[in-house]
Amino acid sequence: MALPDQVDEAINYIKSLEANVKMANEKKEKLLAGKNKRSREYCLGLPKSPCFEIHEIGSSLQIILTCGLDNQFIFYEIIRVLHEENVDVRSVNSSKVGDNSLLHVVHAEVYISKSIFDA
User: Fold this and answer.
1) Quick one: 57 and 4 in the same domain?
2) pTM score of the predicted model
3) I need a labelling partner for 5 at 20 to 30 A (CA). Which of 23, 61, 94, 99 fits?
4) DSSP three-state, residue 71
């Protein structure tokens, strides 16, 4: 490999290490901010009823929703409410659980000064 190519590869490697360090520091800060961590769980109490948990760590939210295939409107309603409250939805992962249930995991970031639980 030519010397300029080796230098370019070394620069790219260093940049990737810097990005990894930055992500690790952000994760560390979130974990150390455990005093700001809150969780809530909501279930309707009916068989196969929708159930969701909200985990708040600083300005980050994780919402875990388990619902039947016929209860998808609840997922869409949660996304709608988050957008109404100016919460930035970062990612959504959905997977089928069993024959007729879905698991949705929503990761979001709150950019307002007060907690979503206070709203």
Assistant:
1) no
2) 0.56
3) 23
4) helix
